[in-house]
Structure of Holliday junction branch migration complex subunit RuvB:
Amino acid sequence: MIISDDNNKNIKNKGASNDAPKCKSQDLEAKEVDFDKTYEKNIRPKTFEEYIGQSALKDTLKITIEASKKRNVPLDHLLFYGPPGLGKTTLAGVIANEIGVNIKITSAPSLERPRDIIGILMSLKGGEILFIDEIHRLNKVAEEILYPAMEDFFIDLTTGKSQSVKTMRVPVPKFTLIGATTKAGALSGPLRDRFGIIHRLEFYTIDELAQVIKRSAKILNIKIDDEGAKEIASRSRATPRIANRLIKRSADYALVKFDGKIITKQIAKEALDSLCIDNLGLDTTDRALLELIINNYDGGPVGVETLSVALGEDVRTIEDVYEPFLLQKGLIARTNRGRRATKLAYKHLGIRYTEQNGQMGLFD
């Protein structure tokens, strides 16, 4: 593709379960401080041995990395997709460390102008890794600049204007692109096909999350026993990022309420109940969504737009943040007519399930 910086563009409660914690919802404003940055840096694993979970993917990557070293060629371009918080960025850092090269990290929304992506590509050194987060949000110009860079390691530039325009082909160092996305289906076919390895990251089991929690606790000098780790893991929505956040909050609770005692199952339960996180990992909004469908719309089906207005939440927030976990747990079902609460949702909330509710799904 021929590009020029002259063409830069900007892109632009009723029936609550006994298991559910009884608390009032709170709006908290999160602020990043130096401790949070240090915390994230400290707990990120550096090697495959430290990286817990994703066993099948790790085995594949170990073979691929070893083969690239023996051939003395850069690693194939990789695409990781899956829900947020499963370790895509962390895994990219592990790969760079295992190969022994530097990694440059950026995100697709920050690559608005042609010179943004060109500047990064020209600054790379041979064998280095370029990691682009949320790669499905790349604008068309940046994406097309990547095509020849990924395949043949060159980019096309133009100089001059009008009839005096000249083109030149500029080589870029051989590099490995690692893309991460939560929406693999949003990638264009030409871009997706240029990745040599495409892999979906899986949700974590409770045992895997317990290992993540114990590892993080050890690094941060937090005392926790096996049962306490499993209690936190069971409420972490199968996601390491959430598990690491909850271990911090549980440690705060243990420090203030129990003078820093070891986090047991009971202490973890009390800490997470105080955060309105129940035994399945559902928070206040998750339960409000289910109760709305059951109590206000007789279990559904009800359209997501209606739920959005009733909850005061954006449609995309419901679809991207809340629904995936509720669907995974089998608490709601998507039908042609809208969302419907399942029998498991009634049971979890302690609401009596009748056959009339169940029959509604027969005609969806």
User: Anything to note?
Assistant: DSSP finds 15 helices and nine strands in the chain.
